[in-house]
Amino acid sequence: MDVRKQAAGHLNGASSCGKKHVGRVQAAPHRPPTFGFMGPQALPQHILDPAPSALSPTSATTVLSPLPSRRHPQRMHHHHNSRRRASHTPLMHTHTAAVEETPLSPQLHPSILEALAPFAKAPSARERMGLLIKAARSMAPLPDSARTQSNRVIGCTAQVWVTVSQDQGTGRLNFGGGSDSELSAGVVAVLANALSGLTPDEVLQLDKSAIMQQLALASLTTPAATAPPASDLPSPSSSATPPMTRSRAAAAANILEAMLLRARSLVREYPRFPSLLISAGDMPEQPQQQEPSNNGGAAAAAAAAASGGLTPQGAFAEAQAAYLEPNMAEVLALVHALSTKKIGVVAHFYMDPQVQGVLSSAAEHWPHIAISDSLVMADAAVKMAKGGCRAVCVLGVDFMSENVRAILDEAGHTDVQVYRMSPLSIGCSLSEAAESEDYIRYLTEASRTPNSLHVVYINTSLYTKAIADSLVPTITCTSSNVVQTTLQAFAQVPEATVWYGPDTYMGANLAQLLQWLAQMPDEEVQALHPAHTAASIRALLPRFKYFDNGSCIVHHIFGGEVCEIVREAYSDAYLTAHFEVPGEMFTLAMEAKGRGMGVVGSTSNILDFIALKVSDALARPHGERLKFVLGTESGMITSIVRKVQSLLRASGRRDVDVEIVFPVNPSAITTAQQQTSSRSSSRSESSNG
Fold it and tell me: Per residue, what are the HEC states of 243-258?
C-alpha cells in the first residue's frame, strides 16, 4: 500500500473517534503545571495492552482525552505489531540521557564569606529575617536622583534599585541601592556589603549559586503566621514582619543578577539587540487609516507606530513595527471578501509581520481569523466550521494544512474546504528530517527494543506519523506537553524506552531537564508529575532516547554569539525561549525561570507568560519598564504587541512600558543597517539622476 495513502487511512480513521473518545482512560491527577507545560495525561489503555489480531495496519487514530482545563488534545497512534525483538546497539543518531554529577562550587572570596557568614550560620528563618531588617535599617538612604528606571531591578514585586561605581584610583567597585520594601532593602544592603571592595575581575568570576547558598534565603518559605513578632526584631515598625516566601529568594537572585550586570557594563561593551518599546502614549483605540505604501512606506509606517505607542530601536525592529498598523482600506477589503464568501483564516505566529498586521486588524471586524501555534490552528478551524465558514485558508507550512484537514475531518466537517496559499511545496527543515532515511533507521531501532514508545512532535507530516505508526507505538506531542507526555509514558508503561523525535534541540533540552529533575527534591519532581520521584527519574534516564539529526532553522540562530550576548548583557531581563532552541538558550531560560524571570515552552506559553507579567505590573501601584528577550521567531511580535496594547488600554495606565528585545546575530544587525543605508543611497541617486 502506498505510504501516503496509508497516511490518509490513519487520518480518515480518526474521524470515528472524535466525540466518542475511543480508548479514553481516566486522566492522571491534575497538578499545577511547571515549566510552562501542560499537566500529566494518562495514555490510552490499548497502547498498554495491544490486541494485534483485532487491528489492521491502518487502524484508526485515537484521541487522548484532555484534562478539563486544556484545549490541546493529544493524538494517539496505535501499534498493531506486538512482536518484541532483542535490543541492538544504539544507532549513531540516537542519544541517551545520563545522570551528570554537579561540580562543587568554587571557593568564594573571603570578604564575601565574612559578609554572608551570619546568614549561613543563622539557625532559623526568624533569625535570617531579623538580619535582613537590621541590614536595611543600617544602610544609607538612596537619594531620589538614583531612583531611576535604569537602576531598577526587573522581576521584583517591590521597587528595587541598585547602583555601582568604580574607584578611579584603586579600580575597586562600590555597590549601593535601596527599596520601598524593608526586606528587599535588606537583601540589597547585604549583597552590596559583600561585593563592595572587589575588583571587576573578582566580581565577574563569582559563583552566583554559591552566594545564594550562603545567603540561605531559599529555606525562608514560612508563611506569615510563623514570622517572628516585632518585639524580637530591632526597631519594630509594625506588629509583625512581612512574610518570607520562596519569592524572596527569587528576588534576591534577581538583585544579585542586576548587580553583576552593572559591574560587567562598567568594564565591557556589548552589542545591543534591536528592540520595540510598547507604551500607552497617545495610543488610539483603533488603527488609523494610512496612505498606501510607497518607497518611503516603511519609514512612514514606523513613525505612525511610534505615535501609537510603539518605538522601534534599530533597523530590524523598524521593519517589524512598520506593518503593525496597516492600511485600513486594504484591511476592510479583505474583511469584505472573507465575510462574503464565508472563509476563515488560520495563520501561524511565525508568518511575516506584514501578513499578521493585516490579519490582526481584520480580526477586529471578522471573527473567523486566528493567529496561533500549529495545533491551536486546527482547533480554531473547527470553531470556524461550526460558525458557518465554508472554507479555511491556512497560512503556514504543509504539515499545518494537513493537521487542519485531519482535525476538521475528525470533527465531522468533511465538507469544509482547506486551502494552502501556494501550489508549490511549503517545506520545513524539521518535517523533512523526519522523512529521511536516518529517521526511518531510528524508528526501526525503536521497533527492535522491548517496551518502546515513540513520542513524535506535532510539527511533522501525516506521512511521518503513518510510517512511525507502522513500526512502533506512537503518540503525538506539542512543545507545551512534551514533558508531561514523556513522564506519563514512563509512569504508565513499565520499563518503557521512550524515543523522542525528530527535533534534536527539543530532545536534548528534554534530556537535560530530566537530568536536572534527577537531582531535585522529590516534592519538586512531584509538582511536575505526581507519579515520579528523583529516584524514578534517575532510573529512566538510560531509557530516554532522542534523534540527533533534525532541527528547525527558525530556532537555530539562538545559540553561539547571540546566546553569549543574552547571558552577558541581558541577564536582568525576562527571558522567553521556545522548547526548540539550542541548549545554551534553553539553559539560560531555565535559570531565569528559577528566579521567576523566564519561561520555556510553546509560542502560546510565551505569549501567556508576557501577558501575565504585564498584568502583574499593572496590578502594582508604581510604574515600571518590563524587558523581554524574545527567544523565538520574531513574527510573534504582532500578537505580543496586540496583547500588550489591549492590557495597557484596559488598565488606563501610562506609567508601564514593555520592551521586546529581538536577539538576532550582531552581523545580521549590521547587514540590515547597511541594506537600509544602501536603499537610501539608491533612492537618492535615482532622484538626482
Answer: CCCHHHHHHHHHHHHH
Contacts of 330 (CB under 8 A, 6+ apart): 292, 358
Rounded to 10 degrees, what is the CA torsion of 442, 445, 446, 449? -160
Q: Give pLDDT, residue 308.
A: 59
Nearest to 576 by CA among 628, 638, 620, 614: 628
Strands 94-96 and 544-547: antiparallel
Contact 671, 664 (CB under 8 A): no
Find the radius of gyration of the CA atoms of the chain. Answer: 27
3-state SS track over 87-152:
CCCCCCCEEECCCCCCCCCCCCCHHHHHHHHHHHHCCCHHHHHHHHHHHHHHCCCCCHHHCCHHHE
Query: Is 17 a residue of the active site?
Result: no
pLDDT digits over 454-472, tens only? 999 988 988 899 899 899 9
Which whole number is the average pLDDT over 372-394?
Answer: 93
Q: Tell me the pLDDT band of 414, cut-offs 50, 70 and 90.
A: very high
Q: Which residue has the higher pLDDT, 106 or 583?
A: 583
**pLDDT at residue 409 tops 60:** yes
pTM above 0.70, yes or no: no
Q: Please give the C-alpha separations between residue 85 and each of 450, 470, 483, in angstroms, as whole numbers.
A: 6, 16, 28
The one-letter amino acid code at 187 reads V
Sequence-separated (6 or more) residues with CB below 8 Å from residue 660: 275, 276, 278, 628, 630, 637, 640, 641
At 66, the pLDDT band (50, 70, 90 cuts) reads very low
pLDDT at position 555 is 57
The answer to whether the CB of 642 falls within 8 A of the CB of 321 is no
Preceding amide of 502 cis, omega within 30: yes
Cell numbers given for 164: 555601582
Backbone torsions φ then ψ of 652, nearest 5 degrees? 75, 5
Question: Distances in Å between the alpha carbon of 684 and those of 319, 678, 679?
Answer: 20, 10, 9
pLDDT digits (tens, 9 = 90+) for 532-591: 999 999 999 999 999 988 776 665 666 677 888 888 899 999 999 888 787 788 888 888
Q: Which member of 17, 156, 393, 477 is catalytic? A: 156
Q: Pull the grid cell for residue 524.
A: 519538586
Q: How far apart are CA 235 and CA 232, in angstroms?
A: 9
Is the Cβ–Cβ distance between 491 and 39 less than 8 Å? no
For residue 32, pLDDT over 50 is answered with no
- What is the separation, in whole angstroms, between the first and last Cα of the chain? 65
Separation of alpha carbons 344 and 386, rounded Å: 11
For the chain, the average pLDDT equals 75
Q: Are 581 and 617 in contact (CB under 8 A)?
A: no
Tell me if 37 sits within 8 A of 489, measured CB to CB: no
Residue 391's DSSP bridge partners are 343, 417
Alpha helix (H) ranges present in 396-474? Answer: 398-410, 429-433, 437-447, 462-471
Tell me the per-residue pLDDT of 111-154, one tens digit each, with 9 for 90 and over: 888 889 898 888 888 888 899 999 999 999 999 999 988 899 98
User: Sign of dihedral through CA atoms 282, 285, 291, 296?
Assistant: positive
Q: Is the pLDDT of residue 260 over 60?
A: yes
Average pLDDT of the segment spanning 266-279: 87
Instruction: Report residue 228 CA to chain centroid gap.
Output: 39
Residue 274 has pLDDT above 80, yes or no: yes
Name which of 313, 317, 321 is nearest 287 in CA terms.
321
Cα separation, 364 vs 338, whole angstroms: 13
Angle (CA) 243-248-253 rounded to 5° is 170
* 160: phi then psi, degrees, rounded to nearest 5: -130, 135
